[in-house]
Amino acid sequence: MDTKKNNRHAWLNVLGCGMLIAGSVTFYTVVIGNFFVPASEALGSDYASISLYSTLVYIGIACGLPFVGNWLPKIPPAGIAAFAALQSAVIAVLSFSQSVVWWWIGGFLVGVGMAFTSIVFISTVLTNWFSKKTGFAIGLAWALASVASAIMSPVTVSLMEVMDWRTSLLVFAIVGAALAVPAALLLVSYSPEKKGMKPYGYDPEASGEVVLESGVPAKRAVRSVAFALVALALALTQIVSVINAYFPMYAESVGFAPTVGAFMISVALMFDIALNPIIGMTIDKFGAIKAFVGWACVGIASMLILMASAGNQIVAYLGAGLGDTLYVLLGVGIASVASTVFGTKDYGKIFAYITIFGFAAGSVGGFIIASLYEGTGSFEAVFIFCIVTILVIMAAVIGAGISGKKLLHVTEEADPAVEEGLAAAR
Asked: Residues 316-333: pLDDT tens digits?
């Protein structure tokens, strides 16, 4: 086995996953928010109506996920590229829209396509390609996507200053496709076995010549207490992580200038770039359960800092940055917990079923936060809600780790057809 070539392909998959995430997930769930205000004004709609696009993206993801687990191993690179292209095509069409209804329809279609290019696909691919440094690899992929989004967000604003929002949105969709489609076609491969290779960190002396998969069978996993607890943890993490989008509302509620709220989002994005690989490395070093609980404590600290930040912009920025911990745990954190609890055998199927609950919950997360604020007239209730929710998440993750140890893990050889390909490659 050519170790250097093998490892190079593993890290190229990380790069490809980062490009795929950027050109679909982060572009079309985060950066696209820059177009909401001009689009709503042009379409004669209020901001709340056009922001339903985001809710329908989550609903679309939840509808697509039931098919992801079974289809992923069978979908060729061209298929993943097609799902990425679908999202960009829909966004391009929205540049010609004359009604907010098209944004709702478009959001749902983008979500369906995103089900095949987001957290389940990325986590499964990188779990397959890395037997060591898995957490770091997943975190690095998301960090690369954050870098691309951090660059693209101000670019979209600049584009709208020199041309209308419709042309800018069309350019935005083309850039997204230029990142995601080539990455899916040329850089990302579902598993090393399909290319006659081994995972990064593969030890032939420890593993022998036969590739083994160990884990809980999907049919057994979905009926377990551990499955329910991981799904609960993901759903609740999805809900509290959306608080990043409400920093401008919080800033206004305590008398900060609008620019402060906008910069709080930018600070969170900058922290995201660093936190993704750092949290991934701590998962690799200390284990997914311990690392998740430890970083969840940082999430609680961020809420306490935000509660004390009224009148102090620097403290608000610090709270916003540390609060991004929750968004990172939604990606590399939950993915690593699921891998630890259920193993790699049917990981793609199991994690797809788990994330259905998470994205369904995400569609109401914003409603819960906005309702708490509007009902109490203060964000203090929101922060207290988040703290209590994080405590429940920590308990669920710990419980899943304990319960998962009682599940019977099955170890078996990889697909014989894949093994024949390996033999031919050798």
From this structure: 999 999 999 998 898 789
Strand, helix or coil at 371? helix
Mean pLDDT of 223-251: 86
Structure tokens at 21: 């995430």
296-319 b/e (C-beta count within 10 Å ≥ 16 → b): bebbbbbbebbbebbeeeeebbbb
CA distances from 178 to 84, 121, 141 (A): 10, 19, 17
Q: Residue holding tokens 């630890």? A: 340
DSSP three-state, residue 230: helix
For residue range 149-176, list pLDDT tens digits in order.
888 888 888 898 899 999 999 999 999 9
Residue 62: what residue type? A
Are 234 and 357 a contacting pair, CB within 8 Å?
A: yes
Q: What is the 3-state secondary structure (H, E, C) of 100-128?
A: HHHHHHHHHHHHHHHCCCCHHHHHHHHHH
Look at the pTM and tell me if it is higher than 0.85: no
Q: What angle do helix axes 225-241 and 347-376 make, rounded to 10 degrees?
A: 40
Task: Report yes or no: 331 and 142 within 8 Å, Cβ to Cβ.
Answer: yes
Cα–Cα dist 111/361, whole Å? 14
Looking up tokens 């769930």 gives 29
CA 360/CA 387 separation, integer angstroms = 21
413 beta partners = 212
* Strand, coil or helix: 310: coil
Distance CA 358, CA 238 (A): 6
